[in-house]
Amino acid sequence: MRHGEVHNPARVLYGRLPDYHLSMAGQQMAGAAAEHVASLERPITALRCSPLERTQESARPFTEIFGLTAQLEERIIEPANVFEGKRMSRALRNPLNWWHLRMPALPSWGEPYRSIADRMLATMDEAWRETPEGDVVFVSHQAPIWITHLAVAGVKLQHDPRTRRCALSSVTSFERVGDVWREVDYAEPAAKGVDLGAV
């Protein structure tokens, strides 16, 4: 699951910066996502979330509904980005920042896509091995979830970030068959909110 809407009145790219919390709408969105997962009537036996505040707050409704304690998982965190703390519309007008855009396939502004895919898939594999039964919910971020989608689909990881299908509080479901992961569902139970500050 992706976290809910973040309170970000300055509209900066917050990335891994501390003290970015869910807005009131974001809290409601996280609740809608947890209720959606509960409505699937699948056994949820583990809950992991990125250590950033917005994911921990988005995990709370799952702790209440399923009686689980969220385990912090560093490997599903937002990727680092040189534009953190900046308003992108302004940063991109500054020629000094254009160097960071020289290799969009990598990308040159932050963590390589391949690195993100590898750490996400390693975490999924570990959770699959360590969870004897039931499903595991990860609460993560747009870029890691979308890049995992691309990796599992076997397509190029290079993409235009504006084209990601990963709305706030959306739920992207994967299953492992043998040694192969595949995506089995995507839902937007809280299809609202203002998506500002995503990497």
If you had to describe this structure to a student in words, what would you say it looks like?
The chain is of the alpha/beta class. It has a domain at 24-80 and 112-187: Rossmann fold, CATH 3.40.50. It has 5 helices and 5 strands, in the order H-E-H-E-H-H-E-H-E-E. The protein has helices spanning 24-39, 53-66, 88-91, 113-130, 142-153; strands at residues 44-49, 71-72, 135-139, 171-177, 180-187. The strands form 2 sheets. The chain has a 3-stranded parallel sheet. A two-stranded antiparallel ribbon has the order 4-5. Strand 1, helix 2 and strand 2 (71-72) form a beta-alpha-beta unit. The two termini are 16 Å apart. The model has no long low-confidence stretch (mean pLDDT 94).
